[in-house]
Amino acid sequence: MYIHLGQETVVWSKDVIGIFDLDTSTVSKHTRNFLSKAEKNGEVINVTYELPKSFILCNSSNKNRVYISQISTSTLQRRADFISNL
Asked: Is the pTM of this model over 0.85?
């Protein structure tokens, strides 16, 4: 099944590795370095025109993708939980 990340962007739920809150997770320098490196490698996809609230790490066909979304982590988690309960 798919998870809607915002702005007409969906990903396979099985490809999602993690859903992270931007406010709390970017406090760590390791997370900031990871996001910086992903952006330099062209792995970051911004799916919002609004203030971003979360980032979603996905792996499909052995390629990492980081989606930046305006949707909160709790909403994305509820969507993922709903799909897993089907």
From this structure: yes
Residue with tokens 């990871």: 34
Cα 41-42-47 angle, rounded to 5 deg: 145
Q: What is the pLDDT of residues 44-66, one digit of tens each?
A: 999 999 999 999 999 988 999 99
The pair phi, psi for residue 84, each rounded to 5°, is -70, -20
DSSP designation for 30: H
What is the bridge-based pairing of β-strands 54-60 and 16-21?
antiparallel
Residue 33 token pair: 């370095």
CA dist., res. 72 & res. 85, Å (int): 20
Integer distance in angstroms from the first to the last C-alpha of the chain? 9
